[in-house]
Amino acid sequence: MKRNVLVGVIVLLGVSVTSVFGMESSDSAKTNTREKIETARKEALTRRTQVKDEYKAKLEASRTEWKTKREEMKTKLSKLNDDRKQKIVENTADRIANRNEHWVTHWNTILTRSSEIVNKLETRSQEAAKNGKDISKVTVAITSARTAIETAKSKVTVQAGKVYTVSVTDEASLGSNVKAAVSAMKVDVSAVIESINAARRAVQEIFKEIKLVVPETE
Amino acid sequence: MNQTNTQGFAAFLAVGIVALVAVGAFGFLVVSKESMNPLISETKRSIDQGVEEDTAVVEVSSSTDITSLEKEFSTTTAESVDSEFTSLNASASSL
Predict the structure, then answer these.
(1) How far is CA B36 from each of CA A24, A31, B43, B44, rounded to the nearest angstrom?
(2) What whole-number distance in Å separates Cα of residue A122 and Cα of residue A151?
(3) Could you read off the pLDDT of A158-168 as tens digits, one per residue?
(4) Of the candidates A41, A88, A110, which has its C-beta nearest B91's C-beta?
(5) Residue B73 burial (CB count, 10 A)
(6) Contact residues, B window 40-59, toward A, CB-based 8 Å cutoff
(7) Is the ipTM of this complex over 0.85?
(8) Residue A77: which of A179, A181, A177 has the closest Cα?
(9) Which residues of chain A have a CB within 8 Å of the CB of B9?
(10) A83-130 and B66-74 helices cross at what angle (nearest 10)?
């Protein structure tokens, strides 16, 4: 009886130790993957914080620069005789500055939202990978999208630091000078929008690839 | 007498082992359930991320299904700038 009990205990201990080691090796692999994901996430977070800080600093610097240049412009405008023209130039210059700030804030928001969506798509693809699905094309698309988003964010940051001033010399050239400022802004804004559209196309590519791996109903 | 002691010891060992296995199985079930549930993992990740980033500005839903994410992405578009430039040019033309 005593012998049987001892054999039973040894067998149970053996089974427990084997299962514990099995769990540990499986846990170790999971821990490595988690650590890699965590490291990548922290690096992305650091980069994002740097870009965000740079963006805020540029925006603040451009506000200060605009205040100074606006006063200079107003002084020059006050020397002109036509009050109507003075007001139009002043209002147009203000609108240019306001629009630029509004747009860079808006673009920054949609790019951050796009980044969050890419993060979620990555989580979804990792779940699919755990179920044995081949996510290599999704991973490539995610990397491309992240690069495109970062490129667009950098352009938005540069745009945040831009100040468009209207050159005031005489009444006759006011119209062409305002058009020149508007035109310069349009060129820059078009370039930023093109990079945002490129980022958008890159995110759409992830959706295309992930749908081939994860059915929409899942 | 000796046989009674042996039986008592065996019963004690059996109860101890059963209790240990039960505790281990319960712990294993709890841990594996949490790590296997993508929603719990995702929520935890989001909470950690939220605390670390301090970015409550951008609101993205907690949904992770592809259809919802695609709908969300379809509304994440850059607004049109054309009308504003037309208006600014019109102001310049009036000078």
Answers:
(1) 16, 14, 13, 13
(2) 19
(3) 999 999 999 99
(4) A88
(5) 22
(6) 42, 45, 49, 52-53, 55, 57-58
(7) no
(8) A177
(9) 2, 5
(10) 170
